[in-house]
Amino acid sequence: MKRSSVVSDPTVRIAATITATGVVLYTLMVAQDVFAPLVLAIVVGIIFAPLADRLERLKLPRGLVAFSLIVSIFFLLAALAYLIEPYITAVIDRLPSIKYEIRKLLFEYRGLIQGFDAMNREVEEALGAAADAEREALSDMPSLTDAIFLAPWILAQALIFFGALFFFLLTRNDIYHWVSSRIGSGTDTPMILSRLRAAEDTVARYFAAISVVNTGLGFGVGAALMAIGTPGAVVWGIAATLLNFVLYLGPVVMAAGLLLTGIVAFDGLMTFAPMAIYLTLNMTEAQFVTPALVGRHVQINPFLVFVSLVFWLWLWGPLGGIVAIPVTLVMMRLLDIVGDRSESRAAIRTA
Questions:
Q1: Greatest CA separation for the chain
Q2: Helices 62-93 + 233-243 axis angle, to 10
Q3: Most-buried pick from 77, 136, 176, 195 (CB within 10 A)?
Q4: In 3D, which of 271, 209, 268 has the Cα closest to residue 244?
Q5: Is pLDDT larger for residue 304 or for residue 236?
Q6: CA distances, 310 to each of 163, 303, 316 (Å)
Q7: Residues with Cβ < 8 Å from 108, sequence gap 6 or more?
Q8: Domain residue extents for the chain
């Protein structure tokens, strides 16, 4: 009797909830190398679940379907890396000149404020220190030893991701049944299972809609940058597509990269042309295209999106930004489960 009263004490429940939340957050942060690829694999598995269902309806074995999707994703990532690698190598080779151009531009604008004499002196110092800047940039580049030590970590992350993705696609129906039977009672299990299916469908439809939008943005950015002669316009189009999946942070990174490209490739006001083109297209997409297409399938509170993004970025960095929206959509469906359960139990008691 005393134990029951202690458990029902609101203060004890709140303290236990806060403690459990802190332990979970600490575990997710400390064990990021394990949980981050696991969560990403679950999100990717949910996204490809409708395709897996269609293939299974063609009487294909579930194991073959899961393996085929894994191989397809692997070769897609490999092809993307093969396409981008030459441009990344070129950027690394030009790091000294990029750093020098940035310093020169900063000195010029600082000179406008401090006076032309100071500007000339600082520009001359920058020109005289060009060789030092090049040596400094080269010394900051990762060495072969760094790459060798980093390779096992990358391999382990990839192994966790693809392994978790394979087994999730293979057994996700069993996982849904197990979760639904553990969350609620026997009468609630079918409703919870339907909500889990609805969460899967919501995430898949959101990703499909946002993929169409981001692909269109990438084509537009690539074509516009190619029209003004920006180096690597095709890669910038691909980057615009991929980075737009990370809300807020992705466009900032993209704009900063295009500003650096403009500094190196153009002079005068044309320096800002690549960034201005991207920001114009991105704002058009965000204000008109995305609400029209994505809003038909998913409606999310912008404040909730921002808080979720900040939290996951703080927890796992850029990878957290990728999983933030899908995880939020799933949690919204789970909260619907809680509400429906309480209503159904109230109806049962009334009956």
A1: 88
A2: 130
A3: 195
A4: 209
A5: 236
A6: 28, 11, 10
A7: 119, 123
A8: 31-183, 185-351
